[in-house]
UniProtKB/TrEMBL annotation:
Recorded GO MF terms: N6-(1,2-dicarboxyethyl)AMP AMP-lyase (fumarate-forming) activity
Alphabetical list of Gene3D superfamilies matching this protein: Fumarase/aspartase (C-terminal domain) (1.10.40.30), Fumarase/aspartase (Central domain) (1.20.200.10), Fumarase/aspartase (N-terminal domain) (1.10.275.10)
GO biological process: IMP biosynthetic process
Pathway: Purine metabolism; AMP biosynthesis via de novo pathway; AMP from IMP: step 2/2; Purine metabolism; IMP biosynthesis via de novo pathway; 5-amino-1-(5-phospho-D-ribosyl)imidazole-4-carboxamide from 5-amino-1-(5-phospho-D-ribosyl)imidazole-4-carboxylate: step 2/2
Segments forming domain Adenylosuccinate lyase PurB C-terminal: 329-449
Claim: Secreted is one of the keywords in the record: no
InterPro entries in UniProt: Fumarase/histidase_N, Fumarate_lyase_CS, Fumarate_lyase_fam, Fumarate_lyase_N, L-Aspartase-like, PurB_bact, PurB_C
Protein's organism: Plantibacter flavus
Keyword line: Lyase, Purine biosynthesis
Protein name as annotated: Adenylosuccinate lyase
Keyword Transferase belongs to the record: no
Biological role: Catalyzes two reactions in de novo purine nucleotide biosynthesis. Catalyzes the breakdown of 5-aminoimidazole- (N-succinylocarboxamide) ribotide (SAICAR or 2-[5-amino-1-(5-phospho-beta-D-ribosyl)imidazole-4-carboxamido]succinate) to 5-aminoimidazole-4-carboxamide ribotide (AICAR or 5-amino-1-(5-phospho-beta-D-ribosyl)imidazole-4-carboxamide) and fumarate, and of adenylosuccinate (ADS or N(6)-(1,2-dicarboxyethyl)-AMP) to adenosine monophosphate (AMP) and fumarate.
Sequence ranges assigned to domain Fumarate lyase N-terminal in this UniProt record: 15-308
Biological classification of the source: Bacteria, Bacillati, Actinomycetota, Actinomycetes, Micrococcales
UniProt xrefs under SUPFAM superfamilies: L-aspartase-like
Amino acid sequence: MTEFPAQPLSPLDGRYRPAVTALGEYLSEAGLNRARVQVEVEWLVYLTEHSMFGSSPLTPAEIEQLRALYLDFGQADIDWLAEKEAVTRHDVKAVEYLVRHRLSELGLDRIAELTHIACTSEDINNLSYALTVSQAVRAIWLPKLRLVLDSLRTKAVDFRAVPMLARTHGQPATPTTMGRELAVTVYRLERIALQIEANEYLGKFSGATGTFAAHVVADPDADWPAISREFVEGLGLDWNPLTTQIESHDWQAELYGKISHANRVLHNLATDMWTYISIGYFRQIPVAGATGSSTMPHKVNPIRFENAEANLELSSAILDSLAATLVTSRLQRDLTDSSAQRNIGVGFGHSLLALDNILGGLGQIDLAEDVLAADLDHNWEVLAEAIQTVIRAEVTAGRSSIEDPYALLKELTRGKRLGQAELVEFVSRLDIGDAAKQRLLELTPATYLGLSDDLVDYLP
């Protein structure tokens, strides 16, 4: 058998790469290493700016050259690190050697010993993960979610007054509008999006066991907690003063829990849209050249929403696992988090792919208002709720003597399909006030919508 050339094992790096490639800028090994170089470089800049350990400030040109090490980080650096790590068997140490090597090339050997000084690997790693994850969320994942929300919001407004038979327990129920139902999903997702936007990205920078021990021995007079805080916050992160060797990852558990929550609301949307398509409420727009079935030429399958379901489930499974795993570390440090965190991009990738599919699915459907109208007209029995409620109000007001209105309507409608004529005849014989009777006689399933249209105005 012919052996294949090296192939991607994950579909995210193969079949679905175009949809998720933007995440690689941050949540790949290369993205992580670039962030590590950034932290190492910014620590050098900080130390020299504050003349720590007897150093002198760098010139603006030298600082610019230093920052170019991560701003211009590219394939040559990726290859250099791969070769070095093959020898060191330690990824962060390889980054340290890269920085030292570049310092020598820049003629900055005088600050070489400041590279990685007073740092444990986790001081670099935790800040790098916080930087890359925050950038991926803010630059890639949230904007894609916002596009889905914009599409849903537009449809909610456009369909706000389009009557639709509701289905509770899968059975005909009090009508609503398609727009209001989509607005419910927008409201749910908007709340979660705001929580994600407000999530903290914590960082620690306090040495091998979080005690600043080496720092104090090297410079007893420095205010190390203040220095640590200023450095971490200078990177745009939130400072965590109390940790072991590692930052405790609680912010990650919180974030991944929120992303997973959003995934599940999106999954609910995907299953509902699939169902609406199945019963004909939405017509799918055929894509030129596309095939729905290998044997049934007529098929236009809701594959976008089906694909989204699967990927949302995979994403939540990974993110839930990360949230559970990362909050535990034996004593002052173990390496379970190191292996686990390498899958952050996979969790986000499946979610991003799902968002892309949902967005595509929403763009390939048309509302079949005629089908919605016909469905309403075949289910006049849903007015039973309105009728029995009006009777009860009339009894309370002394304008009716009907006993047990609910039982009366239950006997008339439960498990039965009634038409307009039967309901009109029934209402006409009711012992209620004329005004109430007239309201009921004018009511149809398509107008029994309560405040559905107005409720869309509560869209955030």
